[in-house]
Design goal:
single chain; alpha/beta; TATA-Binding Protein; Helix Hairpins; eight-stranded mixed sheet; disordered C terminus
Length: 561
């Protein structure tokens, strides 16, 4: 029950949810059709040559990551942007982003454009302009300097080799020397050569640090941009789906908001919390969605409403165990709850128990009982009070229904005074002597007439229409019943939508059972009607009608009339 309570707003406002979802999906699709196809090209650069070092240090990696972040920031600035536009002779660059890949020494430049060739050219040119800002720029003056350094490195390499060979030679001759003077001279030469070798090695290291070999602050393009043939967007399917989901969520929120703002009794739980009386009846709608001016066929045991009113009658009989209920006022808290339909059909159901039932239309402002029994309303309760007609002429026995009906009669100018008069009490006393049960169709509690009638009857049957009866009016009706000192026998849930039977009534298996039986009866009638219809059709037309036979069955099963 709790789950259906939460799902009910979506089911009730399904058309709003469906329309919002469809509108959102349609507009997103129409919008995305106008968007051009987008391509993306990527260029990847690397800082330094640490990756080629078999034993890199942690400091080298940290320094490379910091340099990568710095170069990525420079690539996003105007100096690189303007230089790229000038190099390509264009007035505007497509959208791009340069970023250092996390925890690496790599820089990625991604260019997004509607033209795949242009995105490739811009990506490669951005990388080239970034290289010009690094020590590996390749400018003419830098190339000359590098050639000089390389030449000096070659000379130092040769001198270092010669010095090492000379030191090795002197150390070999030192073992064959006998004279102390020779040994001392040889050791002095070795020391001098060692100092010279150290100086050359230091110079070699300084020169080597100014070359690209082993340098950290160098840029290298390891993956140039290629021509992209597969677009990256827009993703039409995902965009439409996301728009549809957003529309669905928005409409669902609107549905829940509308239900929250709706001040009506929506379920049996709401009724049970508000009223202190039990729910004694659950009446479903007819197939056409209305119970107005309908009298159910009490002889048809397969009719869905037969068991509903039989259950209502039984519950009222159980309520009579404490105090006999000879006069029952059927009323409601709001207009349009269907109290007249409940009163008329309840009278028929009680009459089935071989009881004498009198049905009185005491709703003098809006009388309707006469419409249910196809009676005239020229003489009735008002004419009886005013002495215009005797009681024998105003009370009419409905043939075949075993119910005596007293219609309202002509609408008076002072209905409240008539109902509160002694004549009403005398009439009820007199009718109790000749009838077993008196069912009174009273006005709703929005007028004072209902409170007056409530004080004159043995019990009140409150009719509530789920989703229609307002809670504020229901609370007022409860207060007026307490003031009148009347007994509320129970509450009848009337005109329950069949599609929401579980939510409104709490159970629908009984209705479904009788509905299915009633549907079988309808199916038999369909077969008979088709058989008669066959005789009036041409052979070709009959074949067409026969092809729709199963469709007719399905429709009438779902909607029995």
């Amino acid at each position: 029950m709790e789950l259906s309570r939460y799902i009910y707003p979506i089911k009730k406002w399904w058309w709003l949810v469906a329309a919002s979802t469809l509108v959102a999906a349609t507009f997103s699709y129409l919008t995305i059709l106008r968007q051009p196809t987008v391509y993306q090209s990527r260029t990847t650069l690397m800082i330094g040559t640490t990756i080629n070092d078999p034993n890199p240090s942690n400091n080298e990696f940290l320094l490379g990551q910091q340099l990568a972040a710095a170069y990525a920031d420079i690539a996003n600035r105007d100096m690189v942007r303007i230089a790229t536009m000038n190099a390509l002779n264009i007035n505007r660059l497509p959208e791009y982003i340069a970023r250092a890949l996390p925890n690496t020494q790599l820089i990625e430049i991604a260019v997004t454009d509607t033209d795949p060739e242009r995105s490739q050219l811009v990506a490669n040119e951005l990388a080239s302009q970034l290289l010009l800002l690094s020590p590996t720029s390749g400018q003419p003056e830098d190339q000359g300097r590098q050639e000089f350094i390389n030449e000096q490195l070659n000379n130092l390499e040769a001198q270092i080799k010669e010095t090492e060979d000379e030191i090795e030679k002197l150390q070999g001759e030192l073992g064959n020397m006998i004279s102390a003077q020779q040994i001392d001279d040889a050791q002095n030469q070795i020391s001098a050569l060692q100092l010279k070798l150290n100086a050359m090695r230091n110079n070699y290291g300084l020169l080597l640090s100014n070359t690209q070999q082993g340098a950290m602050n160098t840029l290298t393009i390891i993956e140039p941009a290629s021509l992209t043939v597969r677009p990256i967007g827009p993703n039409k399917i995902w965009t439409v789906l996301l728009a549809a989901v957003f529309g669905f969520i928005l409409a669902a929120c609107e549905a829940y908001l509308l239900e929250y703002l709706n001040d009506t009794l929506k379920s049996a739980d709401d009724v049970a919390r508000l009223f202190s009386a039990p729910i004694v009846g659950r009446i479903f709608e007819y197939a056409d969605g209305s119970n107005e001016n309908h009298l159910y066929d009490s002889a048809n045991l397969n009719h869905p409403l037969t068991e509903a009113y039989r259950t209502l009658r039984t519950n009222i009989e159980f309520a009579e165990m404490e105090r006999p209920l000879k006069t029952i006022l059927v009323t409601s808290a709001d207009i349009g709850d269907g109290k007249t339909s409940v009163a008329a059909n309840l009278a028929l159901s009680v009459a089935q128990r071989d009881k004498k039932v009198i049905l009185i239309d005491a709703d003098l402002r809006r009388p309707n009982i006469h419409k249910y029994f196809n009676l005239t309303n020229e003489q009735g309760l008002v004419d009886l009070f005013l002495g215009r007609a005797p009681i024998g002429d105003t009370i009419r026995l409905n043939k075949g229904k075993n119910v005596a009906v007293l219609t309202a009669g002509n609408t008076p100018s002072n209905p409240t005074e008539l109902l509160s008069s002694k004549k009403m009490e005398k009439l009820l006393t007199k009718l109790k002597d000749v009838a077993d049960v008196i069912v009174i169709d009273g006005p709703p509690f929005i007028v004072a007439d209902a409170m007056i009638l409530a004080s004159k009857v043995d019990g009140i049957l409150m009719v509530v229409r789920p989703g229609h009866t307002r809670q504020s009016l229901a609370r007022i009706a409860i207060d007026q019943i307490k003031v009148a000192g009347a007994k509320l026998v129970g509450v009848v849930l009337n005109r329950i939508p069949r599609r929401d039977a579980d939510y409104y009534a709490g159970k629908s298996y009984l209705y479904t059972y009788y509905q299915n039986n009633y549907g079988v009866e309808r199916e038999d009638r369909i077969k008979i009607d088709l058989k008669k219809f066959r005789e009036t059709l041409s052979p070709f037309t009959y074949k067409i009608a026969g092809s729709f036979k199963h469709l007719f069955k399905a429709v009438f099963k779902l909607s029995p009339k």
